[in-house]
Amino acid sequence: MKTRISSVLALTLCAAALPSCDKARNLTSLFDKKPKAAGAATPYDGPLVSPLGAADYDAFPKKPGRVVVIDFYADWCGPCRELGPILDEAANLHKGLVLVGKVNVDKAKEIAAREGVSGIPDVRIYRDGELVDQFRGYPGRDEVLRRIASHTEGLAPLPKAAQPKSSLSPMDKDWMPQGMQKR
Hints:
There is one protein chain. By secondary structure, the chain is α/β, with parallel strands linked by helices. The chain folds into 2 domains: 1-33; 49-156, Glutaredoxin (3-Layer(aba) Sandwich). The protein has 5 helices and 5 strands, in the order ααββαβαββα. It has helices spanning 2-17, 22-29, 78-93, 109-114, 141-152; strands at 49-51, 67-73, 98-104, 122-127, 130-136. A 5-stranded mixed β-sheet has the order 1-3-2-4-5. Helix 1 packs across helix 2 (22-29) and helix 3 packs parallel to helix 5. The longest helix is centred in the first third of the chain and has 16 residues, at 2-17.
């Protein structure tokens, strides 16, 4: 036991002396972990919009320090198709503070039944794991964005390095397929 402690101590001292070695720096960081504040937003490196299934539905709305929007939809539903891009836009506008989960009611009938979804689109907005707003139907682009933005007030913005990159990016106007040329 004494040898193990002295080995760890020696390894830590060597790691601190070699700042150019990433593995050594990572090793020393294991020993100086600081507890996170409750409810604080942690960096998020996942997608801003995610399809949800039975395996990941329960944990998704419980993300601390974020507004989580869950959209119950179907592919054949006209208002759902209008609402989808607006929810994507809201997630991109708020850069990691708003996450959108999409539940296809045709593929995840058990989730829709358990949550009492009786009409689509059915949108539920959670903040810090608590249901704070809900609406059915398509109230219009401005109303959807206003409702989501109203729940982001007071959330600490994520550090610039922690903000995920947008899943949408404009295409270059001069783009041509390989082997083609402008005329």
